[in-house]
């Protein structure tokens, strides 16, 4: 084909050159600017001469005007024919290029079609079929990509950026590969930035200094990687990232992800692309506290539409054989992952006991595994400190002790105030209308218990029970309810056959920061009964427990902290063997005391008295029988309740007597 067209073009140009020779003309190249141009000039004395030069010579009489006119006519004719030859030559070049292109197409096109056909059979997905058709069309329409890059005009060789892979645009940017997955993907996103979650469209600076990108710089995020499975994220981490909540909600609602360059401040202008949205088939799991859930539920009307299922996880689990094994397996997992010392049986048991204490019950195990993990690690440190090979119970106890010693500064300061009697608490002897209650101080990650002196003074009157804390705005609503409940108990027991003619003031001594909770309601009733009956209470016994109007003792929280707090005070003031704590019987299952407290109880130096009713408690505190009411409404002689009932009866008569005297005095004044 090339020889044919080259021959035709040679004949065309050769015929024209013959005509030039016959007419006495020749083709010369003349410099024009940076290039050259072809020019037809006549031969004068076998030398080419321009018509402008001959015209000048004619004016000077050096050249015949007639000959000049003749040459001019011939030049015009040859020039028109030269233009025709030039056009015909270009047409021949175009035909040559078309013929070569058809030849290339006839050779390459079947090869391309064959490869594309194989790919279509392998990937029958409709979107892939469309892409392969477009790829085939693009390759067939630009066969030059099959040739090595050639230098252009003015270039010595083709630049490197044109020598790159000519089929780069047909390469595959694999943004997700789950070929090796044998189960549904579960992705946990720990850093929920836009780039990490949704992917990115990166830009680079080209050789001209512009920001540019292409499809090969599209990167997927964790949401795409979780496609077909579960995507887990902490709600607080998500909300702390600006704009991420709305982006995630939009993706879930639209069921698609639009990967784009994240540029909130529009600082990276330049060429960009917009990839097609990616279908999103994923279950998003938000993990957070109830407060975060309630906040989103109240502040975002779309929250419940997007996140339809709520699942609550308990912070405790049952203490049974299966969960003990799970606890042991968790300990082994931490040991294996972090290279810690192995635990023997006693060490594992101590970890379970600590889990029970954190849960607040011997029937429960805590699921706050971050707290348990910290104790496991510190127990390992204690083992290494004593140069042991295995973690034993003693190491776990030491780890717990070390943890407490780092955060119990306030407890130590309060204990010092008990030791130097800045806080007035008596742990020996007996006193009327005075009792030691127990309270819990919560310092966030650490809580402790300490005793509080509660005093009661009773007198003739109609005010009933006076809550001094409430009168001074230091009593919380639950404590107020507890005082009203014990007032109901007094009316039930002693005001069925007579009016109450009593005023009893209750005070939490040296309490300046407020009181709440009803765990001191039984303590307060004991002090009231003591004050009315004038029977002293053993000051070595502290009391905790709420009550109802029937006189039944109800369970309370923080029982271990309360017992240990009173034990510490008694120990520092000297244990007498008669000290102890009265607790609700229901709280016995919650007892998980420190080893030193357990040892003191076992040796009889400290006592714990579980009680079910007020009557049981008052007998322990006073050493006097409480007394049970008979059908006639009377209590046995010498019992606490009989003395209370008799005193209240006398107070009622006394109040009635004073009432009559007041009436007589008023009548005399009127006369």
Question: How would you describe what is shown here?
Answer:
47% of the residues lie in helices and 16% in strands. The protein has 22 helices and 25 strands. It is α/β, with parallel strands linked by helices and 671 residues long. The strands form nine sheets. It has a seven-stranded mixed β-sheet, sandwiched between helices. Strands 1-2-3 form a three-stranded antiparallel β-sheet. The chain has a three-stranded parallel β-sheet with strand order 4-9-12. The radius of gyration is 51 Å and the shape is rod-shaped.
Termini gap: 151 Å
- Helical content (DSSP H or I, runs of 4+): 40-55%
**Number of helical elements:** 22
CATH T-level fold name of the largest domain = Ribosomal Protein S5, domain 2
What is the CATH first-level class name of the largest domain? Alpha Beta
Coarse morphology: rod-shaped
Q: What is Rg?
A: 51 Å
Strand content: 15-25%
What do the pLDDT scores average to? 87
Q: Write down how many β-strands occur, each being a DSSP E stretch of 2 or more residues.
A: 25
The secondary-structure class comes to alpha/beta
Largest sheet composition: 7 strands, mixed
**Overall domain count:** 4
Short description:
With 671 residues, this protein is α/β, with parallel strands linked by helices.
Defining key terms:
671 residues, three-stranded antiparallel sheet, Helicase, Ruva Protein, domain 3, Rossmann fold, alpha/beta
Show the helix and strand layout.
Elements: H1 2-22, E1 25-32, E2 35-44, E3 47-48, H2 51-59, H3 65-122, H4 126-141, E4 186-189, H5 194-198, E5 200-201, E6 204-205, E7 211-212, E8 218-219, H6 222-225, E9 230-234, H7 235-240, H8 244-254, E10 256-257, E11 278-279, E12 283-287, H9 290-299, H10 303-306, E13 316-318, H11 321-338, H12 345-359, E14 364-366, H13 369-385, H14 393-405, H15 409-419, E15 430-431, E16 434-442, E17 447-460, E18 464-467, H16 468-471, H17 477-494, E19 502-508, H18 521-533, E20 537-538, E21 541-543, E22 546-547, E23 553-554, H19 559-573, E24 580-584, H20 595-602, E25 607-611, H21 614-622, H22 640-670
Parallel strand pairs: 4-9, 9-12, 16-21, 18-19, 21-24, 24-25
Antiparallel strand pairs: 1-2, 2-3, 5-8, 6-7, 10-11, 13-14, 15-20, 16-17, 17-19, 22-23
């Amino acid at each position: 084909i090339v020889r044919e067209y080259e021959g035709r073009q040679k004949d065309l140009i050769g015929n024209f050159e013959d005509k030039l020779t016959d007419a006495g003309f020749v083709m010369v190249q003349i410099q024009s600017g940076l290039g050259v141009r072809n020019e037809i000039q006549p031969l004068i004395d076998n030398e080419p001469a321009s018509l402008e030069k001959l015209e000048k010579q004619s004016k000077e009489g050096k050249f015949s005007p007639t000959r000049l006119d003749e040459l001019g006519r011939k030049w015009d004719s040859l020039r028109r024919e030269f233009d025709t030859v030039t056009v015909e030559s270009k047409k021949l070049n175009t035909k040559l290029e078309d013929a070569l292109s058809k030849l290339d197409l006839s050779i390459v096109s079947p090869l391309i079609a064959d490869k594309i056909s194989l790919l279509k059979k392998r990937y029958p997905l409709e979107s892939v079929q469309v892409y392969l058709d477009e790829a085939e069309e693009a390759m067939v329409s630009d066969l030059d990509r099959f040739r090595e890059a050639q230098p252009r005009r003015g270039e010595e060789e083709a630049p490197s950026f044109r020598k790159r892979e000519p089929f780069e645009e047909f390469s595959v940017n694999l943004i997700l590969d789950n070929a090796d997955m044998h189960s549904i993907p579960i992705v946990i996103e720990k850093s929920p930035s836009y780039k990490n979650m949704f992917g990115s469209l990166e830009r680079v600076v080209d050789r001209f200094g512009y920001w540019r990108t292409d499809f090969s710089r599209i990167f997927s995020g964790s949401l795409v990687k979780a496609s077909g499975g579960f995507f887990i994220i902490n709600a607080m981490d998500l909300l702390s990232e600006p704009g991420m909540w709305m982006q995630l909600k939009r993706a879930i609602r639209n069921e698609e992800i639009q990967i784009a360059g994240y540029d909130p401040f529009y600082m990276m202008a330049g060429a960009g692309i917009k990839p097609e949205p990616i279908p999103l088939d994923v279950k998003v799991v938000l993990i957070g506290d109830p407060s975060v859930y309630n906040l989103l539920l109240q502040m975002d009307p779309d929250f419940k539409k997007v996140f339809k299922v709520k699942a609550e996880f308990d912070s405790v689990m049952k203490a049974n054989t299966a969960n003990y094994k799970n606890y042991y397996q968790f300990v082994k997992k931490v040991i294996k992952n972090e290279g810690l010392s192995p635990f023997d049986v006693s060490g594992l048991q101590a970890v379970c006991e600590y889990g029970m204490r954190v849960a607040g019950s011997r029937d429960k195990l805590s699921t706050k595994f971050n707290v348990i993990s910290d104790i496991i690690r510190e127990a390992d440190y204690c083992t290494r400190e004593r140069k042991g090979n295995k973690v034993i119970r003693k190491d776990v106890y030491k780890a717990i002790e070390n943890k407490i010693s780092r955060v119990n500064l306030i407890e130590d300061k309060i204990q010092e105030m008990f030791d130097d009697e800045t806080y007035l608490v008596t742990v020996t002897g007996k006193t009327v209308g005075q009792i030691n209650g127990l309270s819990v101080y919560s310092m966030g990650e650490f809580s402790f218990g300490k005793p509080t002196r509660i005093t009661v003074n009773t007198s003739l009157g109609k005010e009933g029970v006076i809550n001094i804390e409430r009168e001074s705005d230091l009593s919380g609503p639950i404590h107020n309810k507890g005082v009203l409940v014990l007032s109901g108990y007094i009316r039930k027991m002693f005001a069925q056959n007579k009016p109450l003619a009593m005023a009893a003031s209750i005070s939490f001594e040296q309490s300046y920061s407020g009181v709440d909770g009803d765990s001191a309601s039984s303590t307060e009733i004991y002090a009231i009964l003591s004050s009315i009956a004038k029977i002293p209470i053993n000051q070595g016994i502290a009391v905790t427990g709420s009550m109802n109007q029937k006189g039944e003792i109800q369970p309370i929280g923080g029982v271990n902290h309360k017992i240990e707090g009173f034990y510490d005070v008694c120990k520092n003031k000297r244990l007498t063997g008669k000290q102890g704590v009265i607790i609700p019987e229901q709280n016995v299952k919650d007892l998980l005391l420190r080893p030193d407290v357990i040892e003191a109880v076992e040796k009889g130096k400290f006592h714990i008295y579980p009680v079910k009713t007020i009557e049981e408690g008052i007998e322990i505190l006073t050493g006097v029988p409480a007394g049970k009411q008979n059908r006639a409404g009377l209590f046995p002689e010498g019992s606490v309740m009989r003395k209370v009932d008799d005193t209240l009866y006398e107070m009622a008569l006394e109040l009635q007597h004073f009432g009559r005297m007041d009436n007589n005095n008023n009548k005399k004044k009127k006369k």
